[in-house]
Design brief:
By secondary structure, the chain is mainly alpha-helical. It is elongated.
């Protein structure tokens, strides 16, 4: 069967709802943990390494983009279901593809944020060794 002839049903995008919801919950938890860390650092008054500050700024920015891509993926999933429900399966399939691409982008950003987080821990460990 050719890719252009693929039929999509309402259940296909519906399968993504729990996955995207859990992913957004995980992203929110990461954001809250990072926000708590930043508030703790600012309230303690201890000097913060320039590398750590740069790292924190990058992580906040990436988490925001992860959340935006996840929410857009969710919204496109809903939009896809609307088009499928109204009988516009081809448009629904295209929108579902966009939803999957946004979800993939969000997951790639998540991996990048995890790597930056590990770098931050390594910076902290180096300072503890001094």
């Amino acid at each position: 069967m050719a890719l252009g002839n693929t039929q999509i049903s309402l259940t296909t995008p519906a399968l993504l709802f729990p996955a995207i919801s859990l992913l957004l919950l995980a992203y929110t938890n990461r954001f809250f943990a990072l926000a708590a860390l930043i508030r703790t650092l600012s309230s303690e008054g201890t000097p913060v390494n320039g590398k750590q500050l740069k790292n924190l700024h990058r992580r906040i920015s990436i988490i925001r983009r992860m959340q935006e891509a996840g929410v857009l993926s969710f919204a496109f999933c809903v939009l896809c279901m609307i088009f499928i429900y109204t009988g516009l399966n081809h448009i629904g399939s295209i929108i579902f593809g966009c939803s999957l691409l946004l979800l993939l982008y969000s997951l790639l950003l998540s991996v990048i944020e995890i790597r930056i987080s590990v770098d931050a821990l390594n910076i902290h460990l180096k300072e503890l060794n001094k």
